[in-house]
Amino acid sequence: MNLQVDENGRLRHFLSIDGLDRDILTNILDTAESFTGVTDQTIKKVPLLRGKTIVNLFFEPSTRTRTTFELAAKRLSADVLNINLNASATSKGETLLDTLRNLEAMHSDMFVVRHADSGAAHFIARHTQPHISIINAGDGRHAHPTQAMLDMFTIRRHKAEFKNLTVAIVGDILHSRVARSQIIALNILGTGEIRVVAPRTLIPAGIDALGVQVHHHLESGIKDADVVIMLRLQNERMQGALLPSEHEYFKLYGLTEDRLAVAKPDAIVMHPGPINRGVEMDSQVADGSRSVILQQVSYGIAVRMAVMSLAMRSQQDAGGTQDAN
Amino acid sequence: MNLQVDENGRLRHFLSIDGLDRDILTNILDTAESFTGVTDQTIKKVPLLRGKTIVNLFFEPSTRTRTTFELAAKRLSADVLNINLNASATSKGETLLDTLRNLEAMHSDMFVVRHADSGAAHFIARHTQPHISIINAGDGRHAHPTQAMLDMFTIRRHKAEFKNLTVAIVGDILHSRVARSQIIALNILGTGEIRVVAPRTLIPAGIDALGVQVHHHLESGIKDADVVIMLRLQNERMQGALLPSEHEYFKLYGLTEDRLAVAKPDAIVMHPGPINRGVEMDSQVADGSRSVILQQVSYGIAVRMAVMSLAMRSQQDAGGTQDAN
Amino acid sequence: MNLQVDENGRLRHFLSIDGLDRDILTNILDTAESFTGVTDQTIKKVPLLRGKTIVNLFFEPSTRTRTTFELAAKRLSADVLNINLNASATSKGETLLDTLRNLEAMHSDMFVVRHADSGAAHFIARHTQPHISIINAGDGRHAHPTQAMLDMFTIRRHKAEFKNLTVAIVGDILHSRVARSQIIALNILGTGEIRVVAPRTLIPAGIDALGVQVHHHLESGIKDADVVIMLRLQNERMQGALLPSEHEYFKLYGLTEDRLAVAKPDAIVMHPGPINRGVEMDSQVADGSRSVILQQVSYGIAVRMAVMSLAMRSQQDAGGTQDAN
Question: Is A70 on the interface with C (CB under 8 A)?
């Protein structure tokens, strides 16, 4: 049984890209498309989730991610509660499950979950009552599915068919929840060729099973690529022995206009942000004509609105029968 | 003169259960009853407090309590400002009274006050302009009246008449603002028999004056009880000499299914949360069929909506004359 | 080119009083006048900015200032995001400009900026896309223009014509962004006589160029004044050699009823808050009949509503053409 999909095959939780099929991903992208127009209106709101209670349940702080979900929820007219669980009842010795039970009892409709542990969002979805939808806003190294979907949306907006595309993902593949989610999404959408580009120390074992080509040199990795996705380098990785200095990393894997010349002439450059300028890429690329990095941010709101409204629709239809009693 | 009641005998502040009569408490319970349906609606909101400004004025942090009041206010369509006064102007040397004057001048309508000092909510109500309602969200050891009212609401939902009930309150009676508020409310509502159950060190002197029976053994205390209210054990009490270890406490006062067998067969078990599982009760009881702990949380939103809307109605009617000038 | 004014001569950013003319200031005051009635309504809201996204972008914490802007925005029906940039992505190494780009990409409409560095709000306005309005909520020693405008509003409400007034500003002129903004506003509005009153160490060099009279004695400084504006003494100034003790300061510059006797009989006393009672003035003055300090707070909401709605109107009209494409 797939936790993420209801009996009618529709999205009810959004925990990871794994286990979703092409129809569902395409439906998310199409729904997001319909929300891009909302921000052009004078009143940038739709009343879809009016009176719904969405809880941003953040077990690790992330202003950036919290902001995008809060904004998406408000544009859907939902009420938003921000709960930072470091500063809350769990510190009073309450278990996670008791915290969930309490928020359920308050008739919350959706938890947007951010957690440092892989699998936390799945755990919460398995242990939450059916009337609550769970959206994964990043769990450890495991998944960051709304980020992956906004990346897919950005690609689809700029390129024709996934099946004709070559997409290169460059950087710390090993530790990146974004990369994992992207690869799976690209596969489901039938992407022609997926490459990962990184030093040997930052490639996870068994990555071939995901149907990707592995490159250790930037030039060969992005050659003739239609899409170049640069991952964010986590500073903390620098501390360990896995990576040389930032300077050294830039020399080997940093994207410059010169290097980008080997990609397709109309290649687009993506990055989940925030950019370490001069590490993953130089500013000429980040701010250049082929960068779609800020569009990713824009589309991120529309994609989150889509995921939230789809999951809520599934809950509401399920609840409809219940209301009839 | 009763600070909490306006000239028409209606609630204008909600500071403590003391000083309120059975009509007012019953009116709160009846109003809460009318709000329980709101969460079953597709749009879980009523427009009663639209355009009103409610300030959560928290002098000590409590995510849990803040969340319930914020949610209740939003479901009444009010605008909510969260002000944590540790991180605010008071640290700039502003006095409490100047802070109140400022929030009044901004045309706030209601302060929900949480403070570590007993009597803080009364102090603020005495020193605030008449157009502001004060709701006590917990002041030191003194009172936590919305918690007491949600407990009364839960009892009324499950049992017939208060006058036929035996209610046992088990735990640290001495330090509990919840217990104090509960005992007074139970008395006002005419409860048949009220018992407190605790070791000698955790019973306040002169408790008999409140019309309760004192028990030092759990079994005698909950025998034939209709309602068993377990209090939360504050960890900090363990530090002092007042209590043995958590393990020892559980052995003497912890609720188990076995022990609960001496209560009435249809007894309900309550707890204000968060539960220390294995201290106040084991998980079999907490999650068992007689536990109504999560219903308390649900009803808590409805009760807070009731208290807020009643107090605001009193202010508004008073203000109506003022507007006419 | 004036950054603050659009091609039709209307306010589009509100960064400082400098560079604005009397028409614009008067328009702000008149618009604020129209908003003072909103708080007398049962529903204290107008739908002017419904569906707009206003970001409180605070690079230094200020609960007091954040609260007034949040309240003004909510009374205009806008959606508000509070972002404290100490706890956010900038700590992940993101540059300020990247943070701005991201918030732009999320289709924010307005940034309310608080920053410890002088000129930060101008910097942000210069580097933000045209569809975003910037409101300066205090930048270093430079400006605090909404505070100055609420002071002007308060004066206009109590006195007839600026040209017939004598206004004395007392305190740490050197370090005060409020004083700077006030002096410029008073000049633009044609105030008869502007005096600054402070010890030599707290008067900036070249202040005469601003058209003010310098006084070092309180009595001569406030003699026959119509308006006495007391500045807040920053405690941190005491640490340095610039000032004697608080006690000594009060002896020389603290306002008492006795001293106030030399001002006009109907003089008003102002202070931006929070007051250090017994330092800038004693409580008899602060709470006395000539104090309009709490009215300043009230008017502050109306003035901020005015500035926000005017700036947004300018953006919206500009955007109107864009929408037509």
Answer: yes
Tell me whether B304 touches chain A (CB under 8 Å). no
In a domain, A16, yes or no: no
Largest CA distance in chain A: 67
Residue B311: both structure tokens together: 């107090």
Shared domain check, B183 and B133? no
Residue B271: closest CA among B286, B261, B284? B286
Same domain as A187, residue A247: yes
Give the type of residue at C44: K
C246, pLDDT greater than 90: no
Q: Which of B51, B83, B84 sits opposite C44 (nearest CB)?
A: B51
Q: How close is the nearest chain B Cα to the Cα of C285, in Å?
A: 14
Q: Over range A66-73, report the average pLDDT.
A: 97
Over pLDDT 70: what percentage of chain C?
A: 93
Q: What is the mean pLDDT of residues A67-96?
A: 82
Tell me, what's the pLDDT at C92? 55
pLDDT of residue B322: 41
Contact A64 C102 (CB under 8 A): yes
C102·A43 Cβ contact <8 A: no
pLDDT digits 0-9 by tens, C126-150: 999 989 999 999 998 888 999 999 9
Q: What is the distance between the alpha carbons of residues C2 and C18, in angstroms, rounded to a whole number? A: 10
Q: Give the domain extent around A237.
A: 145-297
Total domains present in chain A: 2
Residues A111 and A196 in one domain: no
Which of the other chains make 3 or more beta carbon contacts under 8 angstroms with chain A?
B, C
Of C44, C75, C273, the CB nearest to B102: C273
Give the model's pLDDT for residue A89.
45
Residues A139 and A149 in one domain: no
> CB-CB: which of A53, A81, A93 is closest to B235?
A93
Same structural domain, A173 and A227: yes
- Determine, yes or no, domain membership for A11: no
Instruction: Please report whether residue B132 resides in a domain.
Output: yes
* Residue A234 near chain C (CB below 8 Å): no
Interchain CB contact of A44 with C (< 8 Å): yes
Same structural domain, B180 and B82: no
- The verdict on whether omega for the bond into residue A274 sits within 30 degrees of 0, i.e. cis, is yes
Q: How confident is the model at residue C320 (pLDDT cuts 50, 70, 90)?
A: very low
Nearest chain B CA: its distance from C116 CA (Å): 16
CATH number of the domain to which C180 belongs: 3.40.50.1370
* Exposed e or buried b per residue across C221-260, where buried means at least 16 C-beta atoms within 10 angstroms of its C-beta: bbeebbbbbbbbbeeebeeeeebeebeebbeebbbeeebb
> Which pLDDT value is given to residue B227?
98
What pLDDT score was predicted for residue A237? Answer: 61
B172 and B280, same domain (yes or no): yes
Please, are residues A307 and A28 in contact by the beta-carbon 8 Å criterion? yes
> Residues B164, B257: one domain?
yes
Note whether B311 and B135 are within 8 A (CB): yes
Contact A297 C88 (CB under 8 A): no
Q: What is the pLDDT of residue A63?
A: 87
The answer to the question of residue A13 being in a domain is no
pLDDT tens for residues B204-263? 998 989 999 999 999 999 999 999 999 998 766 656 666 778 888 999 999 999 999 999
pTM for the predicted model, two decimal places = 0.92
